[in-house]
Known about the structure:
Keywords: Disulfide bond, Hydrolase, Protease, Secreted, Serine protease
CATH class of the largest domain: Mainly Beta
Shape: globular
Number of helices: 2
CATH topology of the largest domain: Thrombin, subunit H
Low-confidence stretches: 1-15, 144-148, 189-207
Helix content: under 10%
Family: Belongs to the peptidase S1 family. CLIP subfamily.
CATH architecture of the largest domain: Beta Barrel
CATH superfamily of the largest domain: Trypsin-like serine proteases
Subcellular location: Secreted
EC number: 3.4.21.4
GO biological process, one term: proteolysis
Distance between the termini: 47 Å
Amino acid sequence: TLIHLSGGPIIRMFQMGGYTPAPHSIKYIVSIQKTMGQHFCGGSLVNKYWVLTAAHCNMGVNEMVIVAGDFSLSRYEGTEQFFIPHLLIPHPQYNSITNNNDIMLIKLRAPVYLNSYVTTVPLPRQGASLAEGRVCRVSGWGFTSSSGGQIPSSLQTVKLPIVSTEKCNGTDSFNGNITANMLCAVSNTDFSIKPCRLSDSLVLLFQGDSGGPLVCEGRVYGLVSWGKGCADARYPGVYTAVSKFRSWIDNTIFSYYSRCTKN
């Protein structure tokens, strides 16, 4: 079954080799939380007013809070900034069945204050591609064991190589379900490893959050979108290819400010 990697009750994909980075070393990531404080998706701060995430993280504008400058979800550190979304703009061609165009912009009601704990992250140019084997980084607060378990209190990160669309679309993998608007990456390239055994007592797995950033060469090239279970080399994690949407992102933000100027 194909699954979204959301922070809700839905099962999510796992990546091997995740670790806790230095506190506040990944400054562009935000935690998207329910109004009661439960983390359910990740996002990237691309502008003082704008967050980039997955369209399937759309819980409704009145149902979420955006937290920047967070590292530990279990305690208040004094570095957090809390924001109410003003507008959610999912891609107009988002398809929840095929997962195509799984991308959304969130306009904040107030600007983020950029400091030593919070920064924006650049986007790739329109149409920019990544070579197979290019190592990228995905970060988030996803579950860390194959049986679910608790969301880790501290941010997690893992480095992953890019997998070609041809391999990802192979008959022994996603069999044609990967569109031109998606890219694949996987941390487990050893087909002999079976990382999803529920009997394993060691916590060896890490899953990124839905909507969380896949950063390559310092730019957000991917958004955690969907997968097919645990860190199985046959089924890489599938990410929204942000470079396919750079023009849409720019035009959406520009048109918003154009409307504001006219009004």
